Amino acid sequence: MAATIPASPATLQPCKKNVSGSMLIRSPPRTWRRRLPQHVVIADASSSSRGPKAATGGRLETSTDAAAVAGEDGDVIRRLQNGPDVRGVALEGENGRAVDLTPLAVEVIAESFGEWLREELQQLESGRDGGEVRVSVGRDPRLSGARLGAALFAGLARAGCSVFDVGLATTPACFMSTKLPRFSYDASIMMTASHLPYTRNGLKLFMKRGGLTSGEVEGVCDRAARKYVARKMGLGGGRGMPPVVMRVDLMSAYAQHLRNIIKERVAHPTHYDTPLKGFKVIVNAGNGCGGFFTWDVLEKLGADTTGSLHLEPDGKFPHHMPNPEDTTAMSLTRDAVLDHGADLGVVFDTDVDRSGVVDATGAAINGDRLIALMSAIVLDEHPGTTVVTDARTSDGLTRFIQARGGHHCLYRVGYRNVIDKGVQLNADGVETHLMMETTGHGALKENNFLDDGAYIVVKIIIEMVRMRLVGLEGSVGTLIMDLEEPAESKLMRMNILGEAKYAKQRGTQAVETFRNHIQEGKLNGWVLDDCGDCSVSQGCLVDTNDDPFDVDAYMYRAKFFDEYKGELGWVHIRQSVHNPNIAINMQSSIPGGCKSMAKDLLDRYLLTSGVNEFVDITEVQKFVK
C-alpha cells in the first residue's frame, strides 16, 4: 500500500480515473478497518449460447423464471430509495427486517451515481467531455460504515471517479465540500441513516447545486437495480488494478467556516476573536457526529462547554438516539443546562443536519418553537419574507409569522420537498429566506439552501450574543413568548399489512381514499386545507406552479368543523417514506378535539372505506376508546 503524504486538499494529486473495480485505500481515518469487497465472475455471457446459469445447483432457469427472479432482485435495490435518500438495514438484529443494504447494493448504487454524475456534468458544462470527476465521501460512526464504505469507494472508482475520503463527518460538511474553495468537489456522498437505529445505514447524494431530488435518486436506483441483477447472475464485477482513495481533512475547514461566520457577524467590540467569552453552552451530540461543534467551534470562540453530553462518536448510540425530537435527548440537555447555569443547550441529530435547543430557563425549543425562533430572527433581517414549512405546523405558528409581517407557505412533508419549494419560490420572484420542517431540518437562502443543524445553531448563538450586547434581558426563548400552541396534538401510525413490496401502492391507495371521501361528500365537515399564501392547494399536496415537483409520497391535510363547536383542528395523513406505514398527525385548539376527530375518521373513513382490510387501525381504535 502506498504511503500517505500529508497535504492540503488544494495540493493533493488524486488518482487517475479507473473503471476496473476494487480499490486501494490510504490511511483510513480514525479506527476504520476496511476489507475489500470480493467480486467473483461466475459466468461470461458469451460462454454459452444458452446464456448464464442461475446459482441453483446447475439447473438452467426458464426465461420466465429468470425474468421473475431478476425482477425480484432489482426490486431489492429500488426499495432502498427513501425519497431523496437511500436507506436500508445494514446489520442483523431487527425483528422482521432482513439485511438489504449489503456491500453489493452499495457498490452498484455508488457506481450508478458516478455514471449519472458524469452524464449530468457533461450536460451542465457543454465543453466538458470526460475528464476527472471528483467525489468526496463522509460517514457517521455506525458500525456498518467501514464495510459499506469500502464498497462505496469501489463503486465510485468503477464509474471512473476520483474519490476523496473525508472520514467521520457531518452531512452539511459533505455538501460544503462542493463549495469551500480548498475542496470544490463535483459531488459528495454522506453515509448515514440519521436518527434511525444503529442497524440501519444509508446514503445522501449531493451535487454543487444541492441534494438530488427524489426523481433523480429513483433514476440512480433504477440503473443500480439493473447492475445488481447482472452481478447476481455473475456478469461483470471483476477485479482489476486497485485505485487510490485520497484522505482529506474536511471537518477542520468546515469548523473554521462556522467560526468565521460567528466572528464576522457578531463583530464583538472588545474581543473579536472570542465573541463567546462569558457564555456557557451545553452540547448533546448523542454519540453522533456533532462533538466537533464543541471543541472546534464553541471552545475556540471562548465559550465554556462544561457539562456537555455524549460528544464521542459511538456507532451503537448507547445513551439515546441522536435526535432533537427525542424526549430523552431534550430532557437530559435541559437538566445539564439547569445544573450548570448554561445560557443555551444544543441537541444534534446523528449527522448534524438537524438540531434543537434549550434556552437558559430549561425550555425545550424544537418543532414549531424552533421554526418560530428562526422565523423571528430571519424576519428581523428580511422583513416580509416567506417562510416555508411542512404542513404539520400549527395554526399558531402561521399567526406568529404573520404578526411579524411574514408569509407562511405550508407544503408537503419531507425536508427536500420543503427546501425545494423555497428554491422554487425564490426563482419565481417570491422572496423566501427560511425553509424548515418540524423535525428540525432547517435551510436558509443565505446558506446555499442547505439544511444544516449547526448553521441553525450558529444563527441562534449570534442572536444570543447580540441580545446581551444591546442589554436585552432574558434568553433567546423570550423571542417566542407570544407563540400560541395547540391544546392537543397526537401522532398515530398505521402499519401497512402484507408484503413490503406492495406497501407504497397500498399506502397511496389509503391516502387517496381519504381525499376522495372528502371530495365526494362522504366526510361531511372535513375540508382539504389551503393556506392561500402560495401555489399550494388541496391539502398542501396539489401544486399549481407551472413546473410542479414530483410527488414522492402522498399526503393531505384537512380541517374538521364540528356542527356545534366549529373548527376543532386539522388532520394530516401521509405515507411514510422510511417505513411501511401511514402517519396521522392531529392538532386541536380544543381539549378533546383530537379524540373527536379520530373517532370521526374511524367511523366514517377507516371502517367504511375498506382501508382497514390492508392497514392496521389498532392504534386509532385504542386512542378513540
Automatic annotation (TrEMBL):
<dbReference type="Pfam" id="PF02880">
    <property type="entry name" value="PGM_PMM_III"/>
</dbReference>
<dbReference type="InterPro" id="IPR005846">
    <property type="entry name" value="A-D-PHexomutase_a/b/a-III"/>
</dbReference>
<dbReference type="InterPro" id="IPR005845">
    <property type="entry name" value="A-D-PHexomutase_a/b/a-II"/>
</dbReference>
<dbReference type="InterPro" id="IPR005844">
    <property type="entry name" value="A-D-PHexomutase_a/b/a-I"/>
</dbReference>
<dbReference type="Pfam" id="PF02879">
    <property type="entry name" value="PGM_PMM_II"/>
</dbReference>
<dbReference type="GO" id="GO:0009570">
    <property type="term" value="C:chloroplast stroma"/>
</dbReference>
<keyword id="KW-0119">Carbohydrate metabolism</keyword>
<dbReference type="GO" id="GO:0004614">
    <property type="term" value="F:phosphoglucomutase activity"/>
</dbReference>
<dbReference type="InterPro" id="IPR005841">
    <property type="entry name" value="Alpha-D-phosphohexomutase_SF"/>
</dbReference>
<dbReference type="GO" id="GO:0006006">
    <property type="term" value="P:glucose metabolic process"/>
</dbReference>
<dbReference type="InterPro" id="IPR050060">
    <property type="entry name" value="Phosphoglucosamine_mutase"/>
</dbReference>
<keyword id="KW-0313">Glucose metabolism</keyword>
<comment type="subunit">
    <text>Monomer.</text>
</comment>
<feature type="domain" description="Alpha-D-phosphohexomutase alpha/beta/alpha">
    <location>
        <begin position="254"/>
        <end position="362"/>
    </location>
</feature>
<comment type="similarity">
    <text>Belongs to the phosphohexose mutase family.</text>
</comment>
<feature type="domain" description="Alpha-D-phosphohexomutase alpha/beta/alpha">
    <location>
        <begin position="366"/>
        <end position="464"/>
    </location>
</feature>
<dbReference type="InterPro" id="IPR016055">
    <property type="entry name" value="A-D-PHexomutase_a/b/a-I/II/III"/>
</dbReference>
<dbReference type="GO" id="GO:0004615">
    <property type="term" value="F:phosphomannomutase activity"/>
</dbReference>
<keyword id="KW-0597">Phosphoprotein</keyword>
<protein>
    <recommendedName>
        <fullName>phosphoglucomutase (alpha-D-glucose-1,6-bisphosphate-dependent)</fullName>
        <ecNumber>5.4.2.2</ecNumber>
    </recommendedName>
</protein>
<dbReference type="Pfam" id="PF02878">
    <property type="entry name" value="PGM_PMM_I"/>
</dbReference>
<feature type="domain" description="Alpha-D-phosphohexomutase alpha/beta/alpha">
    <location>
        <begin position="83"/>
        <end position="218"/>
    </location>
</feature>
